[in-house]
Design brief:
The complex is a heterodimer of chains A (about 725) and B (about 190).
Chain A: H1 2-14, H2 18-24, E1 44-49, E2 58-64, E3 67-73, H3 86-89, H4 91-95, E4 105-107, E5 116-118, H5 121-139, E6 144-148, H6 153-163, E7 168-169, H7 171-187, E8 205-209, H8 219-230, E9 234-238, E10 251-253, H9 260-273, H10 279-285, E11 286-287, H11 289-292, H12 301-308, H13 312-325, E12 329-331, H14 343-356, H15 405-414, E13 422-426, H16 430-433, H17 437-445, E14 449-454, E15 466-469, E16 478-484, E17 488-493, H18 506-516, H19 528-539, H20 543-549, E18 551-554, E19 577-578, H21 582-586, E20 606-611, H22 625-628, E21 635-638, H23 640-645, E22 653-658, E23 663-671, E24 679-683, H24 703-706, E25 711-712, E26 719-720, E27 725-730
Parallel strand pairs in A: 6-7, 6-13, 8-9, 8-12, 9-10, 11-19, 13-14, 14-15, 20-24, 21-23
Antiparallel strand pairs in A: 1-2, 2-3, 4-5, 4-15, 16-17, 17-18, 20-27, 22-23, 22-27, 25-26
Chain B: E1 4-9, H1 18-27, E2 37-45, E3 48-56, H2 65-68, E4 75-77, E5 84-86, H3 96-100, E6 107-108, E7 115-116, H4 122-126, H5 132-135, E8 142-146, H6 153-160, E9 176-179
Parallel strand pairs in B: 1-9
Antiparallel strand pairs in B: 1-8, 2-3, 4-5, 6-7
Classes of the chains: A alpha/beta (about 725), B alpha+beta (about 190).
């Protein structure tokens, strides 16, 4: 009471004088004053785009006296439409997390024991440059690999390319979207993009397979999904777990995990057999319908019912419903689709259904991307040609440009086809992202050098030889995000406040390193603001308008739907959707998806499933004080019947032992009817082992530690991770 | 005078907690306290399950027991807008209102030592904005507006769909309405 009054009076007296704020700033920032209390004080709004996840929502940071006090969505931005999710609102927690990396650190103990000393930027960067120089001399520059995710990529990939290594790898491919990207590449010639171009707001039916929208939070996509609910679209959710989305569904199909392909093939069977496909559409835009005839005869609903543990009736009913509502059916291809190593083919099965129903380019299905183009930027200095070919795709024919993390890790361990001796890690926590962390740790042991750029002392960061503290997205410029939906949209990231502590923006770190490596010609600008202004000049975009509004939309003159004079463009060999893939056939893969049964758990085992919480982005946000308050520890979902059999009850703590005898504990049980009896579920990203994360350390269990087994998809090199089985042990 | 109310469309609430985080940032809500929360109610047995997800907050009742039970007149009903608010300088932290409120909508701010609660973000309303929870609602589940204006979103929604209030039997006459299912379109 006393505190409160004195602060109020103090404010009244001093107004927003510098001295007043300086004193107030000694208090924890977000507890300092409520927005109501400072309404009198002038705030300024700084436009930016969010990096609490990778959807890139436009946002405004409200800044009062050098404090960011509130984040709000940007109404003009198509990814947020004025709305931020919990994480987006929680960006303040990252900015003001007391556990942030505050100064460059140089390792003093053994790698992984967490002993560091603070260093100046000059010393730390000189050491990194010296190590990189030695690496190039000893093994060649290709022996440095860059692991990265998010905005940091646009700073450090150019640096690593200039240095002479092509070996980049992002978990966003091999541990996430990769199979889908490959499947679209094979079938339609281009990915459905991010944001996925699903026209859910106009759909008469939405079908989700394992995609738990709502828990998997991407603002505009979830807005469209709830719009579909509000429009009374038929919602079908296929998920072993009664997800939030399943709770909204007209049909919940609690499928046996690992059998989604059987359901997809049975749906295809029914659509083919009953001629429910859009013949005119397929005639115009697809190849391979004839080759499909006869190939799906065995995949009857009765057969699929046995595989999937669903009833034949519900399989038939949902297929009928799709046919009835086509083409206004949003059949979601999923985003995290690295499930069982047959993921490219399963993704293809979805895309084939999308095509049979005629949804690509149709209202309520998948809208067409804007064809707007920007003039090319003036070419910078050409990167040197690497001395050896890139190893980061590992010979997988459809591995994408994002690289295959597990391939780079395997090469680090084997030294084949040539040694990888240094890792540059930015914006990704590899120990939480890649399956079988034992392999990651073993690879790290073999390195001559590991440098990490991050905001937080993650599990991976605390293995680095040199740690470079990057400031948060609210304190820096990053590259202009170009995203393609109905329009081409450019978004700006600009600092709301100056970097806190002794942290620096990624662009500055890359540029300073380039100077020390003699590569400054690749960074021909003084500040990143200068570079952004030059880019805008080349694109004929008003930089001042972009800075003020946060986003510039380049409207598409084309229609989002197929119309006379607006045909869809398929960048495949045949310029059509390739239902039957000769490209795959030539490479000795199945040209049409077919059923290969996945292993199922023994009677006393459960398949380990993992997913997302709407307030967390993988392991990145677990320590965020604002979000941690809402979700500080993951729970293990278990059906009440096996729980009773094991003598376990809600709230008990258990340890998990997987098929490779890896034991991890302890995790709190959530005994719930919301999950099948043959699987357990937890939110990914917990059980972190970095002691510097005071709120996240050892809270909950890491699903990744229990994912010691993974099945690599032979088409794209991606890692199927839902192939691990666990037994439960009660903990004291 | 506007008669402010909130309509919560539970079908569109996906329990993402954006409202919870936005409310805390906007209103400087103390750690471990909340002015709004998400309830997930699951009924049935596998696989025949039903779910209701909804956000809850102060109901800004027209018959507010918190106001009647406040010994210092700190809690009051704003006659102009219908918002149930608090004169913090009159609050002695006696918790009578907390005991009287059937909705668990109030708490004692551990720093300030006085009771605090949802204000419908009256400071934002005064500035022509939506309450923070509504402005950031990803599902479009929370809708705020004036019941006296027949063209406001709340009036339209309440005309279109059947609605309920929480604990109607308590006789508090809440100004927060819940849509739990949609009327079949004609």
């Amino acid at each position: 009471m006393k505190n409160f009054c004195s602060r109020r009076q103090f404010l009244k007296i001093s107004g927003a004088t510098a001295a007043g704020w300086a004193m107030a700033s000694a208090l924890p920032p977000w507890q300092m004053l409520s927005a109501a209390e400072i309404a009198a004080a002038e705030g300024r709004y700084v436009a930016t785009y969010c990096e609490m996840c990778f959807w890139k929502c436009g946002a405004f940071a409200k800044v009062v006296a050098d404090k960011v006090v509130k984040l709000e969505g940007n109404f003009l931005h198509p990814h947020s439409r004025g709305v931020l999710c919990g994480r987006g609102n929680g960006g303040l927690g990252l900015l003001y997390d007391p556990d942030r990396l505050k100064a460059p650190l140089i390792r003093t103990g053994e790698r992984g024991d967490g002993k560091y000393r603070e260093a100046s930027w000059d010393e730390a960067l000189s050491l990194v440059a010296e190590k990189m120089g030695k690496l190039a001399t000893d093994y060649g520059p290709e022996s440095l690999a860059l692991f990265t995710h998010g905005s940091a990529t646009s700073h450090f990939f150019p640096l690593v390319k200039a240095y002479g290594s092509p070996n980049v790898a992002m978990p966003s491919f091999a541990q996430c979207r990769g199979p889908r990207v490959a499947a679209y590449d094979i079938t339609t010639g281009s990915d459905i993009g991010s944001p996925e171009r699903l026209d859910m707001a106009n759909s008469k039916m939405v079908v989700l397979l394992g995609s738990h929208l709502g828990e998997n939070m991407h603002s505009s996509q979830v807005q469209d999904f709830t719009q579909a609910i509000g429009n009374r679209a038929k919602i079908v959710v296929v998920d072993p777990r009664f997800s939030t989305a399943a709770g909204k569904a007209d049909y919940w199909l609690p499928i046996r995990p690992g059998t989604d392909m059987a359901l997809l093939l049975a749906w295809t069977h029914l659509i083919l057999k009953n001629h429910w496909y859009d013949a005119a559409y397929l005639e115009a835009y697809a190849n391979g319908l004839e080759e499909m005839i006869g190939q799906y005869d065995e995949y009857t609903p009765e057969w699929a019912a046995k595989e999937t543990d669903l009833s034949p009736a519900v399989i038939i009913e949902t297929a009928q419903l799709m046919a009835k509502n086509a083409p206004a059916v949003a059949l979601h291809p999923g985003r995290h689709v690295t499930w069982d190593g047959q993921d490219v083919q399963r993704s293809r099965a979805i895309i084939i259904l999308q095509a049979l129903l005629g949804t690509w380019g149709r209202k309520g299905g998948i809208y067409l991307a804007s064809k707007a183009k920007l003039p090319p930027l003036p070419a910078g200095k050409a990167y040197p040609k690497p001395g050896r070919p890139a190893l980061n795709r590992g010979g997988y024919p459809f591995a994408g440009g994002e690289g295959v993390t597990n391939v780079v890790r395997a090469s680090t361990l084997s030294g084949q086809p040539y040694p990888i001796k240094g890792w540059f890690v930015s914006g990704t926590n590899l120990l939480a992202a890649l399956p079988n962390p034992d392999e990651t740790r073993a690879a790290i042991k073999q390195l001559d050098f590991l440098v990490a750029v991050d905001m937080m002392p993650t599990d991976t960061v605390v293995h680095a030889d040199v740690i470079l503290p990057e400031c948060s997205y609210l304190e820096r410029h990053d590259s202009i995000a170009q995203l393609r939906g109905r329009d081409l949209r450019l978004s700006i990231r600009q600092p709301a406040i100056e970097p806190l502590y002794n942290s620096k923006p990624g662009w500055w770190i890359a540029k300073e390193l380039s100077r020390k490596l003699g590569l400054e010609a690749y960074f021909p600008w003084q500040t990143y603001a200068e570079k952004l202004e030059e880019d805008c000049l080349a694109w004929d975009i008003d930089f001042d308008e972009l800075k003020e509004k946060g986003v510039v939309l380049i409207p598409n003159s084309e229609n989002a739907y197929i119309a006379p004079g607006n045909p869809p463009v398929f960048k495949t060999a045949s310029k059509k959707i390739e239902l039957y893939s000769e490209e795959l056939e030539l490479l000795d893969f199945d040209p049409l998806p077919r059923y290969v049964r996945n292993e199922q758990p023994q009677a006393d085992e459960f398949r380990l499933l993992y997913g997302r919480s709407p307030v967390h982005t993988f392991s990145r946000t677990v320590n965020n004080p604002v979000l941690n308050e809402l979700f500080s520890e993951n729970e293990l979902w278990l059906n009440p019947r096996p729980a009773a059999k094991l003598g376990l009850k809600n709230g008990d703590y258990v340890a998990l032992v997987n098929q490779d005898h890896i034991k991890k504990g302890h995790i709190r049980l959530k005994v719930t009817e919301r999950i099948r009896e043959d699987c357990v579920y937890m939110v990914h990203g917990f059980g972190l082992q970095s002691e510097r994360l005071s709120k996240a350390f050892n809270r909950g269990v890491s699903d990744q530690e229990l994912i010691s087994k993974y099945v690599v998809d032979p088409i794209a090199g991606t890692t199927g991770m839902r192939v691990n089985f666990v037994r439960l042990q009660k903990e004291a | 005078m506007p008669r402010y109310a909130m309509v919560i469309d539970t079908r569109r609430c996906i329990s993402c907690m954006a409202c919870v985080v936005a409310c805390k940032a906007e209103n400087d809500v103390a750690p471990a306290h909340f002015r709004t929360r998400i309830r997930e109610e699951i009924s049935g047995t596998f696989p025949d399950l039903r779910a209701e997800t909804r956000s809850e907050l102060c109901n800004h009742c027209d018959n507010p027991p918190c106001v009647y039970n406040c010994p210092t007149r700190a809690s009051y009903k704003n006659e102009e807008t219908g918002m149930v608010l608090l004169h913090k300088n009159k609050c002695i932290g006696c918790k009578a209102c907390i005991a009287a409120c059937p909705y668990d909508a109030r708490y004692v701010d551990p720093v300030k030592g006085v009771v605090d609660k949802c204000t419908f973000c009256d400071h934002r309303i005064a500035a022509g904005k939506q309450p923070a929870c509504v402005a950031t609602c990803v599902g479009g589940s929370r809708v705020f507006g004036d019941l006296d204006n027949p063209n406001s979103s709340v009036s339209i929604l309440l005309r279109q769909h059947p609605s309920e209030v929480l604990l109607a039997g308590a006789g508090t006459e809440p100004r927060v309405f819940y849509i739990k299912h949609y009327r079949t379109p004609r």
